[in-house]
Write a structure and sequence with these properties.
The structure is a single chain. With 74 residues, the protein is an all-alpha fold. It has 3 helices and no strands. The protein has one domain. The radius of gyration is 21 Å and the shape is elongated.
Length: 74
């Protein structure tokens, strides 16, 4: 199945330049970008749900700064 994506000239030139830099086709660049975005969004949703369950179970989290202090790194 073919899909059409419309870019203005400035956007298209940026996509072409990036594809050339990566040694890939525009189609491959767009396909990869779309699936990376989907994966990132799913990962984020899983992380939020997991954190909510963690807190609900009475577990606590600490900031990176607090962890650094506990480990004597700060």
């Amino acid at each position: 199945m073919a899909v059409t994506v419309r870019f203005n000239e400035k956007e298209l030139e940026a996509v072409r330049a990036y594809a050339k830099l990566q040694g890939a086709t525009i189609s491959a660049i767009l396909r990869n970008a779309i699936f990376e975005r989907i994966e990132d969004e799913l990962d984020y949703k899983i992380a939020v749900k997991t954190h909510e369950e963690w807190v609900k179970d009475g577990c606590k989290t600490i900031s990176h700064k607090e962890l650094g202090k506990k480990l004597g790194l700060i």
